[in-house]
């Protein structure tokens, strides 16, 4: 950062501007701001004199209040921040802490609630799948049992008799109806 006479002039103008805004008097001029002990590392101290009495300096508390009130304008003029432009004995103006638009507890609550809902849905879906799988296995087992009941008689496969319903031989049923009257 090149600190030259133009930069000094801009700094004096910004301090004069701050003093004018703070005291609401248009008496502070650029010539009332005096820079002392300027070093190569851009380190110096300054004094603001009273324009009505060129010899008297403005109290430090007024200068501090004026700079604190216009700190952001001074920082912006030099494209610096509170971390890079430091005024000794003048506390930096910290920005207020950023508050999220939604409270943190609400975000945590939402995440926990979503996990619970996902767990319940998983349990229901897995239960339904197990139930379907169990039904499918039982029907396959019944089909296998029916296929196993086929027996061989005289080398000819025959179905096993259903003992509950019984079987009627159709050949003899027709003859019985012909000869038997009801």
From TrEMBL:
Chain ranges of the Collectrin-like domain: 1-182
GO cellular component: extracellular exosome; plasma membrane
Keyword Protein transport found: no
Matches recorded under Pfam families: Collectrin
Principal subcellular localization: membrane
UniProt keyword list: Cell membrane, Glycoprotein, Membrane, Phosphoprotein, Signal, Transmembrane, Transmembrane helix
Highest taxon, organism lineage: Eukaryota
Ranges that cross the membrane: 104-128
InterPro entries: Collectrin, Collectrin_dom
Location(s), subcellular: Cell membrane
Tagged with keyword Mitochondrion: no
GO-annotated biological processes: positive regulation of amino acid transport
Topology within the bilayer: Single-pass type I membrane protein
PANTHER family (UniProt xref): COLLECTRIN (PTHR46884)
Name the record gives this protein: TMM27 protein
Provenance organism: Phainopepla nitens (Phainopepla)
